[in-house]
Design goal:
single chain; mainly beta; SH3 type barrels; OB fold (Dihydrolipoamide Acetyltransferase, E2P); 6-stranded antiparallel sheet
Length: 188
């Protein structure tokens, strides 16, 4: 059993008959009254985020998780298919288990978090950045660069992102997978 002093980002725990991961936390010591820990918890089963406050010293039930490397293969009616890069075993997961699935392209290496005690996949973590190709965008107007102007563009996965005016069809760009925001033009 752990206590609230062990809470950190990425910690998985049993709470209210579900498994949650800590996405944010803050230790608070008010001038009057006891200390407490304010947390933001994300459910591993349904993806909902809740805010909760634990009194300082409260016991929490930590879930031991393992990170395993997988490669995204394809999507069909049954879900998203992944292959373990060590054992070549294939699994499929439902859409609700994957954040920002619209930015995943075939062949992308991801990490899948497993509940070590039950050998059950919990969630998929994408790499922080991904290089994608622009499949459609309107041409930019010359001379319209006095401000940070952006235009919509469709990437190879079918998702729409916002890119600077100088980006054209066929260009490869680096995006942040958590938000889908443009980072830079890629040389690859």
């Amino acid at each position: 059993m752990a206590t609230t002093s062990d809470i950190k980002k990425g910690l998985c725990m049993h709470y209210k008959h579900d498994i949650y991961i800590v996405t944010d936390f803050q230790h608070v010591k008010p001038a009057r009254g006891p200390a407490f820990v304010r947390t933001s918890l994300k459910s591993m089963t349904n993806g909902k985020t809740i805010d909760n406050t634990f009194p300082s010293g409260h016991k929490i039930d930590v879930v031991r998780v393992e990170r395993r490397n997988f490669q995204y293969l394809y999507k069909d009616a049954s879900g998203f298919h992944f292959m373990n890069t060590e054992t070549y075993e294939q699994i499929f997961l439902e859409e609700k288990m994957i954040d920002a699935h619209q930015y995943m392209k075939e062949g992308l290496d991801v990490e899948i978090l497993y509940d070590a005690s039950e050998e059950k996949p919990l969630t998929v973590e994408l790499p922080q950045y991904s290089v994608v190709e622009i499949t459609y965008t309107e041409p930019g107007e010359k001379g319209n660069t006095s401000t940070n102007a952006f235009k919509p563009a469709t990437i190879e996965t079918g998702a729409e992102i916002r890119v600077p005016l100088f980006i054209n069809e066929g260009d490869k760009v680096k995006i942040e997978t958590a938000t889908g925001s443009y980072m830079e033009r890629s040389k690859a």
